[in-house]
Amino acid sequence: MTAGRPLTTARLDAMAERGLRSVQVSLQAVDAERSDRIAGTPSFDEKLAIARRTSELGLALTINTVLHRHNLDQVPRLIELSIELGACRLELANTQFHNWALRNRAALMPSREQLETASKAVQAARARAEAKGLTVLFVLPDYYAGRPKPCMGGWGRLALVVDPTGLVLPCHEASDLPGLEFWRVPERTLEDAWRAAPGMQAYRGTAWMAEPCRSCPERERDFGGCRCQAFRLLGDASKTDPACSLSPDHAIVVGARDEREDELVFRR
Fold it and tell me: Is residue 255 part of a domain?
């Protein structure tokens, strides 16, 4: 999984010889000017070179594009470009507003009209794409869905992350949540770190929930939404994800839909 750099075609060839089977390349847009502006660095041509070489090597190619106000209009062309590149999968994932994306939320937030137009474009192109061997996924943003997404399929339920220090986490951001204790491998076994670490137990299942989650019939489907999003927006990871229309804090998300700024803020 790569931004297309600093990977080179020569390094890609070498990895393919060692058994690499699939590559995911992120594209910010379908043209160099817009892609490089969104990425904050010239990279578009390198990305295309890696994508094309991946297909030439017979490896499975996934194209991933994080969608937002500045590129949603390019969805039809992104589908065509993915077909041209020989991709087998295109992931059109609308921005989830965490970390640096949250800092840029007002510059990235799309309108409902943009989302509806892009969704219709995906539906119109899906049959042709599938006939060309391309599966297209389109993921709505939490801020417009009205229902929260289960965090990693449910906190400590299906997935884990091991960070570079060996810390075993239920998701990439969980170590930022205050007051939670997670364990490291090899200081503990992976099984112990998964099953028994206090942080893993904190929001596992439904017993921790307060209302409106506790009595919600969807509680074992969405598990109260994203703990990290609740913390970022409300300062309390135990509260209902405000992306949920039933959350008493849902107005925070509704209000954010109308925020607008023109300039993206880059990390460097």
Answer: no
Terminal-to-terminal C-alpha distance of the chain: 23
CATH number for the domain that contains residue 58: 3.20.20.70
Tens-digit pLDDT string for the chain (268 aa): 878 888 999 999 999 999 999 999 999 999 999 999 998 899 999 999 999 999 999 999 999 999 999 999 999 999 999 999 999 999 999 999 988 999 999 999 999 999 999 999 999 999 999 999 999 999 888 899 898 988 888 999 999 999 999 999 999 999 999 999 999 999 999 999 999 999 999 999 999 999 999 999 999 999 999 999 999 999 999 999 999 999 999 999 999 999 999 888 888 7
Helix (H, G, I), strand (E, B), or coil: what is residue 135? strand
Which run of H or E residues covers position 194? helix 190-195
pTM of the model: 0.86
Q: What angle do CA 97, 143, 78 make, to 5 degrees?
A: 70
DSSP string for 90-132: EEEEEPP--HHHHHTHHHHPPPHHHHHHHHHHHHHHHHHHHHT
Its domain, for residue 36, covers 9-145
Closest by CA to 243, choosing from 135, 95, 78, 72, is 95
Q: Which residues contact 154 (CB under 8 A, 6 or more apart)?
A: 204, 223
